[in-house]
Fold this protein.
Amino acid sequence: MTKQASMSLFVGEALTPHPYANLGTDLSSPIRKKLRPHQVAGLDMLRASLGSGNRRVVVQAATGYGKTLLAARIIEGARAKGKRVIFTAPAISLIDQTIAAFEAEGLQHIGAMQASHPRTDASAPIQIASVQTLARRSVPQADMIIVDECHIRSKVIDDLMASRPDLYFIGLSATPWSKGMAHFWQDMVVPITIEELIDRKYLSEFRVFAPDVPDLSAVQTVAGDYNQPQLADVMEGKNIMANVVRTWLERGENRPTILFGVNCQHAKDLHTGFEEAGVAAAYVDGMTDTIERKLIEKHFRAGEVKVVCSVRTLSTGIDWPVSCIIDAAPTKSIMLHTQKIGRGLRINEGTEDLLVLDHAGNSLRLGLVTDIYRHALDDTEPGKKQKVEQTEKLPKPCVKCECLHVGVICPNCGHEKKPQSGVEAADGELIEMTRGKVKKVAGPSFDEKQKFLAMATWVGRKRGYKQGYAASIYRKKFSVWPHHTLDTRAAIEPDQAFLNYQAHLQIAYAKTQGKN
């Protein structure tokens, strides 16, 4: 059998004029999604790699790429040839989600490899298993194994690749940059980057703020990342925790938010801090059962929960309508950094951009996620230190508003960075916070300023504050007094974002009083 013939057993041959549009086991499904150009490109690149003789290929599927749909099409191609497939998920909690997604694409006869699971069926030609379950059981008959989140190295997968050269392995990951992956996987294809997905409007623009950069000089490194107990000691102080809450109240715009803490206790404390500030919040960790997590997701989607606090549990495998990320957990891992920010890059109606409140300074140390990428698998030898590849100039916070950017002029407040002796000035390109291309961002509009002033006027009257309250809070918000063209008599009931901002000012004032 030729190389071209063998690889076509899995990604499918052209059964219609379009090479991939109608591959599958159930072409009548009314809800099948149409492949986007970058997904078609991914299948083309995968086919070419397999056709060249590779049997272990990684597809770098950036956040928002649609890797579940890609996996469904790969499985369709294999099933059209009568082949059996195992799909491995990184966690047991993702088993049901994966089965539902595959069935929505018309895949049939799917079994689950999980104790007491109602879909257990050893005869099914498509098996969905967690990596943990696969490690405890004998591997069923298969022609292909698709490894989701393949950057999470596991001994069972490494051993299978070493002992079963007859199997095809397809790895899927937004960040397949783990140390030494090239010693197990033969090739990596990169259909599209995060920056290109943003350019093509598949992902949202984003802004990054770094209000707190803790001193991590005394924190040791363990296994390539910060020592978690020591890191927790640095991050758990009342000042840091209060700043996280106050910053969200000031800048969070009442957006649906996911927060990442250093460890479970840190995330729990931040959860308590939000609740004490009157913000509807929830907490999730690895021990949160499926039913409770689904209930939290339901409340989050309904707007009944605004902030969900976690550690790393929510950094992969979720598709919630997130438009704000609070990162309060420093890391040295570009993979973890990219995965966390990626949770909010999908476009959500009503908030077409992502707001990142980076209290950990990860964007300062590691770079912006649009500037982090790799074109080849890491080939670091065991026992050697992985090389750190810096491809772009790291962003710095604006001295006026603390927004991260890499240009001369801050795209958030317009402040111009003045060159100083011994300091290299950027080349003048404007980016939107975390973008590598020129794009000027407009400040608040006249209507937005008028709305804010009218809400402040309403609150001042309703609560009997002294005359001048509205102008004073307006000045705190926009750094200038209200312009004479604004209507100072108009009053409208405040929205939650305004009330959050007011709460932030009250907390800040109470803190200053406590120091006196």
About this structure: DSSP finds 16 helices and 17 strands in the chain. The domain at 3-193 is CATH 3.40.50.300 (Rossmann fold). The CA atoms of residues 48 and 286 lie 39 Å apart.
